[in-house]
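Researcher: Please predict.
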Amino acid sequence: MRAKEPTPKPSFGLGVGVGIGLAAIGVGLFGYFQTQQNSLHPVAVSSFLPQINPQLAGPPSTIVSNGGVAVADDPLTRARSIVRHGFHGPKADNLYRLAYSAAYDRGRRNAHWVAERLTKESLEKLLIEDDSDTNKPDRKHSKFTEDPTVPPEFRVKPIDYSNSGYDRGHLAPAADVTESQKAIDETFYMSNMSPQVPAFNRGIWASFERYVRGLVRSFDEVYVVTGPLYLPKVDEGDGKFYVRYEVIGREKNVAVPTHFYKVILGVKNGKNYLGSFVLPNEGASHDSPLESFMLPVSAIERSTGLEFFPMLERKSLGSLCSVVKCGFLLAAKFKLKQGNGEDEG
């Protein structure tokens, strides 16, 4: 059993209580998607359904008639006959990179989550700037590119963000990566991007990313999981909750998240400390303390359907903010080095 978590009170308006899950989205699909007949990838049924060991199966199941066809009276065997032409999903593309791992949401064309591991050693090159070394890894040599490991019909292209009014916002920041040019280039795959309001991406979110990098001064290891949220908001007209978000791109299928989360696990002297934060995808008018964006990790799990760090016993985790200052002011207007393109994540 997981221990009951404290319930911090965020200062920004999520428009929903912590206990409220995502509302169902009713979208008219007629005429919305273009059929792509030749791009389907069949998946073996056996990869999704458990195998039966004949020696352990016990007595044979009862045979019943189904429209004149003999069918075993067993749910698993029935399932094999029902989905014999392939299991329909949903499927997340698991992405493995040098500096991060991720799971890609084909439907919304955003990642479900992107995970990183940061240490002093992994970031030490950030502390030593040698401008005379022209061969050192640098984001200025990288370009936004579609992810070749995602099936073509589900890929996002850089042009999908053109004239949208949104930045290509990194989920695993390029600034977190120093080990090689290839590792930096991988952070520019479009599967690592989410549409972010420019004032948010270049302001309070960039300030938050810098704060996270600084955690390696206080912890031996820092594990960071970042992802988008699509949270319900009350309609002022009828008082009901709705999930509404914009879609962009050539085919209008790239979802614009309403919020973003970071779940952070700091490890110090063998003990684990957890902190979780949710920020609205909008510009901030003033500097804000990080603690005003705290939410229980269980609230983020209910909204996303994810389980963070499931191999750790939740009640054994300390609070991240008991080790580091969570009253840190996130800058609404954060000054960044000039990079490539409109985003600085």
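Model: The first strand starts at residue 63 and ends at 66.
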